Amino acid sequence: MASIDISGVKKVYGGAVTAIHSLDLAIPDGELVVLVGPSGCGKSTLLRMIAGLEAITEGTISIDGTVVNTKEPAERDIAMVFQNYALYPHMTVRGNLEYGLKNRGTPRDEIDRRVTEAARILEIEPFLDRRPRQLSGGQRQRVAMGRAIVRQPKAFLFDEPLSNLDAKLRGQMRIEIKRLQRNLATTSVYVTHDQLEAMTLADRLVVMNGGRIEQVGAPLALYERPETLFVAGFIGSPPMNLIDIDDLRDKGALALPDGSDLVGIRPDTIQLSPPEGQHLVLEATVELYEPIGGESHLHMRLDGSGQLIVAAVPARTAVTEGSRATLYVSMTDLHPFNKETGQRTD
Amino acid sequence: MASIDISGVKKVYGGAVTAIHSLDLAIPDGELVVLVGPSGCGKSTLLRMIAGLEAITEGTISIDGTVVNTKEPAERDIAMVFQNYALYPHMTVRGNLEYGLKNRGTPRDEIDRRVTEAARILEIEPFLDRRPRQLSGGQRQRVAMGRAIVRQPKAFLFDEPLSNLDAKLRGQMRIEIKRLQRNLATTSVYVTHDQLEAMTLADRLVVMNGGRIEQVGAPLALYERPETLFVAGFIGSPPMNLIDIDDLRDKGALALPDGSDLVGIRPDTIQLSPPEGQHLVLEATVELYEPIGGESHLHMRLDGSGQLIVAAVPARTAVTEGSRATLYVSMTDLHPFNKETGQRTD
Amino acid sequence: PNVAAQTEIAWWHAMDAELGKKLEEIANGFNESQSEFKIVPSYKGTYPETLTAAIAAFRANEQPAIVQVFEVGTGTMMAAKGAVYPVYQLMEDNGEPWDPSGFLAPVVGYYSDTDGNILSMPFNSSTPIMYYNKDVFEKAGLDRETPPKTWAELEAMSRQIMESGAAPCGFTSGWITWVQTENLSAIHDQPYGTLENGFGGLGTEFTFNGPVQVKHWDNLKKWADEGLFEYGGPVGGGDAPPKFYAQECAIYMNSSASRAGVINNSKEFEVGFAPLPYYDDVTTDPKNSIIGGATLWALNGKDPEVYKGVAQFFTYLSQPEVQASWHQFTGYLPITNAAYELGQEQNYYADNPGSDIAIKQITRGTPTANSKGVRFGNLTQARTVVDEEFEAMLAGTKTAQEALDAAVERGNQILRDFEAANQ
Amino acid sequence: MQAKRTIFPNKILPYMLLVPQLAVTLIFFIWPALQALKSSFEREDPFGFRTTFVWFENYRRLFIDPNYVGSLSKTAVFAFSVTVLSMSLALILAVAVNRVLRTNRLYTTLLVWPYAVAPVVVGILWWFMFNPTIGIAPYLLRAAGIDWNHRIDGTDAMILVIIAASWKQISYNFLFFVAGLQSVPQSLIEAAAIDGAGPFKRFWTIVFPLLSPTTFFLLIVNMNYAMFDTFGLIDATTQGGPAQATNILVYKVYTDGFIGLNIGSSSAQSVVLMIIVIALTAIQFRYVERRVQY
Amino acid sequence: MIENRPFLAFLTHLVLIIGVVIVVFPVYLAFVASTHGSGDFMRGLVPLLPGPHLVENYSFMLNEGISTAGAPPLSIMLLNSLVMAISIAVGKIAISILSAYAIVFFKFPFRLLAFWIIFITLMLPVEVRIIPTFKVVADLGMLNSYPGLIIPLIASATATFLFRQFFLTVPDELMEAARVDGAGPMKFFRDILLPLSRTNIAALFVILFIYGWVQYLWPLLVTTDSRYYTVVMGIKRLAATADSEPQWNFVMAAVILAMLPPVLVVILMQRLFVKGLVETEK
Ligand SMILES: Nc1ncnc2c1ncn2[C@@H]1O[C@H](COP(=O)(O)OP(=O)(O)OP(=O)(O)O)[C@@H](O)[C@H]1O
Ligand SMILES: Nc1ncnc2c1ncn2[C@@H]1O[C@H](COP(=O)(O)OP(=O)(O)OP(=O)(O)O)[C@@H](O)[C@H]1O
Ligand SMILES: O=P(O)(O)OC[C@H](O)CO
Ligand SMILES: [Mg+2]
Ligand SMILES: [Mg+2]
């Protein structure tokens, strides 16, 4: 168990593509940090630099206080779970679990003890003598986890470990990983581009974009107070509606901070009847009514600008497509931004 | 444009696997019917029989009043959109759109007119001279749609047309398809196993299971009043909690219809404070608190049976993991079922 | 003349390099002498390759009208009654002159069948002789004009050549079968097989594992180990001539027809010619060496028109001028007495010392049953066996006696097969 | 056997499509194979005038002929050595090429072209190098004090043809090993590195076992190559000699049939060879069917 | 991956360079030999540096050849090889693609039998059944003709398998889409399948061209007329006579000329070549 310190780290591929621009991140011992961001934003690159699979162009990475920049992966004492699991197909499950320990010369009885323990925790005892191809996707995922935990490494690195599973299984495994990490209290870095996974797993969430960190914080904090336009748009589903202030009728009355020129409105904060306290009023035409069970989505076109916005309303809300609607949003639910800087303004 | 009548249709593969058991379904002109159901339940088989790609073992299918059982696909005048799009990779987008028309000997200027029109509607004019591999997933999907609409067929058949797209794009395309179908008013059969798609697109939803129809109806009707256990469990996310009546403390007071032995409770109808009117009370321990933005999921273990149940509660609900919770459900939100028959009992 | 009406006559042969060029010249000579026929020579590889190619072609009905078959194939060809058009009959049918008595005696003796008829057209007959490098002899301190007469002398001289550093090797040889086994037997009057070395019929058996042959092979093995003798490879011994040309080996035994190549490739040293050596402890009266080279066979299955051309061509070939020029250029024997006489008239032998060694050697003494030649069916295959056994001996896996015994045994099996297939 | 989910309903068309290939196959493959079988029971004179039915005589003679039995074992030695030599060299080269990223293409180009050289030409190249009078190899060997004489020494000759045959086959094996190496998922190697394995350990414990499908495939293909495709090579070098030391089965079929004109024996040998090929192919086929790698 | 092992990098290049030398040296020697005069081979060791007779030797071989070594002018033999290699490649591709199409896209009685008959050709290399095959060709009067050189070699299980394998990877939906779009079997074959197979066809062509070019035994058997000799077989006879008559310069010029076309094809079309090779053998 160890802390991970990333300071001023930069990665340039082949002298041309800058995948990571001077990035700083400190991960305290025992924390589970989730990296999210759109495809190509550098999540895997960062993770692989921590693992030693990718050379670091600039800056330093330390594990447990020691700079590891030039150490081979084997010397870093970390474990990694890959998206495709990377199980050794020619070894049994047991062989897979033992491999890392054997390479490090762990005594035989210690190996057995640890493998048995890991197999018990992950409930894979019945498959210990099978080959990976004889396992289902979920079982393979467990073995991959097992291979990481038997090693009792300083840190776990996960690169989208669940993305090959179907939605149902993904939900289950997510919960298991969360429990396991809580129990083992091993420092972990978890890469995903699934929002739900990110929100539910993270102690701290790191939103990345274009090789830079956009915002770091507790998941709900990010949801409730995105600091940048990017984070605002990236987190939340359906995504936050972003409306130009100039398109608002009563913008004068809004009293938004200086420099604000966009307001963000989460679909579920749009109401169809006026709330108490100060609020914004919008007029729109309903284009599409989407019932999705517990709630419904209203796709509407704003008067004036004609912009499309989405509201999440209770299931049986009585609206018909083509009808006109008046929408209300509490002033406290508005997220003001500056377009130019992309930063929050309040 | 045409109605489609399926009556007594059965499909047996290779004399052994019965994929469809004597199925009846009438689709009126202009309607969009969505077929949902778990993998292997026969959705594609049914669609392909309508298309003429699969022989019909028993029963008849009529399009526009004519029995088409022995007609070649080309003679049925239907268009189909495939999951992998099935674009001709060596032809340009234009070539793809024209191919079906050319084969039917449509005059050159008519072809041009229709292709231009379709390209305009789908906003694919800029790509007309590209090859499919030079397009993004969403663009390919549009071309596949375009190939169907230029033909102006009697019906559209869609087999999971969006399942190769990522979540965001899927949302967008879903809305477009819905709009397009409304405008063209072409009879359509749409296969998916994505609930959200099914709920939001369907005029009428057909839930299939094991080669049979479980329930047919408007999407919300199915959500609110599932007629079978299968439908209850299949529609809704997180899925409906199903609790054995014997595990309920005050089951006597419930006054459920005769024959009920299971009640279904949707996660979003579980409340943390007592509602007005008659209601059910449950005691549970919170195992995991998952914030997902606008709402949070509580994973809890029921006292007594130890069954896991999920509740969807507002985002900032103050609960801590490990604490005890008392849950309330209005009597009107209960769905009573009989385990044996799998049927609703009220 | 109307070129389109020319009848083409295919002639498959095994004459490469200088010999091949000369052969093409002869074909051209005939083609220019008349306009009705055109001889088209084509080279088909070694003698065994040419023979087998012709047989395969015959089976496929693609045979040439004329094929050159070496003396070893004679037994096989004579037995193939349906396949060959006997030359005496061919000449008679086409009204061309035919006088067997005009040929040299050894030729007539070898190529006549049991009824005394010559079945194929004699063309290039040879006999093996010895070539030596006069310059190397001198360098080694030997007399450049005195080649070895006996094997003992040859051994001694070779050793002197090697030890003096004049050349790294004493001698090499083409055709181990023909030169070092068949001819050796004849010269020392040893039988090669029963029934007059096979002349007497199909029931013959090999007997070349006698003491003289064993002794000679033993010596070759001993000399090879010592480096005095270098092996030139199986069949014709293709590696042997370069060894002589490159002055690696001072002495070289091969067909008299190697003369053309030797002369052409020995521009940097002077060559001497001599008869083959003999063991003076076996005989003091070495017999004649035996015939080699080839004759031309007409194959069945062509139009009469073609045979007319073949017959005319054979007549052309027998002309003393053609024969003499062929003989003098190549080193083959003058086939007809007329050609030999013509050479004498031209003073050719006097002007070219050594050029009559072959003819003298093949006609010396009175031929015995053992020096008349060897004529067996499937002899090509039997020779392969002899080569293999010789190689086994050189490799040290067998003694000379064992090798020759094995060769005889395997050879007899081949003879039995031939007998079975031709009964 | 696999086919498409939906198929065209035409009845006659598929036969029309198959006719050209089936015709060629039947006329030039099946029929001659049956002919070979027939004449393996016969004795025939060279010119084909007389044929006698001899039952299993040709086979019986074959298997008591020490030369044939010798040829069987020579073939085994030859095929085995060529396979092992060319595969191990190719593997070493492939691993090396796989390690260099930038110069990869250049090395590959320089290594693959011998594939396009005809075996008989390969034979000539090596025969030339080993020419007893002017060849560079005997010269160097002599300088190194090695007594080399492939004209007489069967072992030397065998070594020569093995080297020549392996030389040609390296490029082929190399390409397949490179392809095999590239199909070993990079993530497995990375996982092993994280699991504490150094480069050599990674190779022996992860990469090599995962190459086993390629290795097995190449084993079969190389055996096939050594047994049949080297005909031209043998013909251009030793022609089976000295004393049949390099007379592999396929060459013997040819020499006994076309040179020795012993059609019956040659046909019997053909039949034996066909049985061997069929066995090899069957092994290969079973393996192709189960190719699901782990 | 971070790796601190400079020695390993050095070793890697060393191994590769040695490998390249082993592969190139015999051909270098051949090239050198082809640039000398005949006399240069009579003095012991083969020369190791190129000589001045390159143009002379090559033009002699190309234009005149050595008829008394069974080698007509090489230009004729090269042309024959070209005809043979191209025709074999085209023929094999044509008949295999049709039969693969039948086997994959149709169901009909005896489909399995047809498949096996084709499969058998894999098992019967021409070398093991030369005599009867030769006889069939002879009986059909095809000796000494291009058809005789070509047709018996164009049945190919490998190419059929490759196409079958490829066709199986063509998504079912493509054919279904075409059927819905009104295309029949031949139209589908022409409009969709053939264009899709383009790179496979090209890759296969490269491999089969080489296959045709390097044929030795077959041309050796079926041609007795020098007008139909191919360069690879012609060369062998040349080499055989070079044993007794040292004209290695001419032999090696011929060797280089016989190697050049297929080697160039491999080098220039490396991508297609590798694809063709790796895929046909699967
Ligand atoms: N080996 C490489 N060479 C050059 N560029 C690379 C390499 N690997 C990654 N990149 C580039 O670096 C950037 C970051 O890639 P990275 O794989 O870290 O993204 P990611 O956030 O993991 O994306 P995803 O969610 O798709 O996995 C991308 O622009 C990518 O194209
Ligand atoms: N060609 C076939 N031969 C035999 N059985 C088949 C064939 N095609 C489908 N089946 C079987 O028929 C049943 C229905 O298959 P179908 O493809 O219609 O399912 P589906 O509902 O479309 O499933 P999915 O959601 O996975 O696409 C399955 O049990 C399947 O295994
Ligand atoms: O070289 P040649 O033509 O004299 O013939 C040699 C003998 O005939 C070999 O049997
Ligand atoms: Mg990634
Ligand atoms: Mg389906």
Automatic annotation (TrEMBL), chains A, B:
Annotated localization: Cell inner membrane
Gene3D superfamilies registered for this protein in UniProt: 2.40.50.100, Nucleic acid-binding proteins (2.40.50.140), P-loop containing nucleotide triphosphate hydrolases (3.40.50.300)
Keywords: ATP-binding, Nucleotide-binding, Transport
Gene Ontology CC terms: ATP-binding cassette (ABC) transporter complex, substrate-binding subunit-containing
BP terms from Gene Ontology: carbohydrate transport
Bilayer-crossing regions: none
Organism domain of life: Bacteria
Topology relative to the membrane: Peripheral membrane protein
Domain ABC transporter, residue spans: 4-235
Pfam families according to UniProt: ABC_tran, TOBE_2
MF annotations from Gene Ontology: ABC-type transporter activity; ATP binding; ATP hydrolysis activity
InterPro entries in the record: AAA+_ATPase, ABC_transporter-like_ATP-bd, ABC_transporter-like_CS, ABC_transpr_MalK-like, ABC_transpr_MalK/UgpC-like, Mo/tungstate-bd_C_term_dom, NA-bd_OB-fold, P-loop_NTPase
Family per similarity comment: Belongs to the ABC transporter superfamily.
Protein name as catalogued: sn-glycerol-3-phosphate import ATP-binding protein UgpC
Protein's organism: Devosia ginsengisoli
TrEMBL record, chain D:
Superkingdom field: Bacteria
Keyword check for Protein biosynthesis: no
PROSITE patterns listed in its UniProt record: ABC_TM1
Topology with respect to the bilayer: Multi-pass membrane protein
GO CC aspect terms: plasma membrane
Record keyword Signal present: no
ABC transmembrane type-1 domain segment(s): 72-284
Subcellular location, principal: membrane
TM helices/strands, residue ranges: 12-34, 76-98, 110-130, 157-181, 202-221, 268-288
One Gene Ontology biological process: transmembrane transport
Keywords from the UniProt entry: Cell inner membrane, Cell membrane, Membrane, Transmembrane, Transmembrane helix, Transport
Subcellular localization, as worded in the UniProt entry: Cell inner membrane; Cell membrane
Family affiliation: Belongs to the binding-protein-dependent transport system permease family.
Subunit structure: The complex is composed of two ATP-binding proteins (UgpC), two transmembrane proteins (UgpA and UgpE) and a solute-binding protein (UgpB).
Entry function: Part of the ABC transporter complex UgpBAEC involved in sn-glycerol-3-phosphate (G3P) import. Probably responsible for the translocation of the substrate across the membrane.
NCBIfam families listed in its UniProt record: PRK10561.1 (NF007852)
Protein name, UniProt field: sn-glycerol-3-phosphate transport system permease protein UgpA
Taxonomic path: Bacteria, Pseudomonadati, Pseudomonadota, Alphaproteobacteria, Hyphomicrobiales
From TrEMBL, chain E:
Entry keyword set: Cell inner membrane, Cell membrane, Membrane, Transmembrane, Transmembrane helix, Transport
Spans traversing the lipid bilayer: 7-31, 82-106, 113-134, 146-167, 188-214, 248-269
Domain annotation ABC transmembrane type-1: ranges: 78-269
Cellular localisation: Cell inner membrane; Cell membrane
Membrane topology value: Multi-pass membrane protein
PROSITE patterns assigned: ABC_TM1
Matching CDD domains: TM_PBP2 (cd06261)
GO biological process: transmembrane transport
Entry GO terms, CC: plasma membrane
Pfam families reported for this sequence: BPD_transp_1 (PF00528)
InterPro entries: MetI-like (IPR000515), MetI-like_sf (IPR035906)
Assembly, per entry: The complex is composed of two ATP-binding proteins (UgpC), two transmembrane proteins (UgpA and UgpE) and a solute-binding protein (UgpB).
Primary role: Part of the ABC transporter complex UgpBAEC involved in sn-glycerol-3-phosphate (G3P) import. Probably responsible for the translocation of the substrate across the membrane.
Family, similarity comment: Belongs to the binding-protein-dependent transport system permease family.
Name this polypeptide is given: sn-glycerol-3-phosphate transport system permease protein UgpE
The organism of origin for this protein: Devosia ginsengisoli
Gene: ugpE
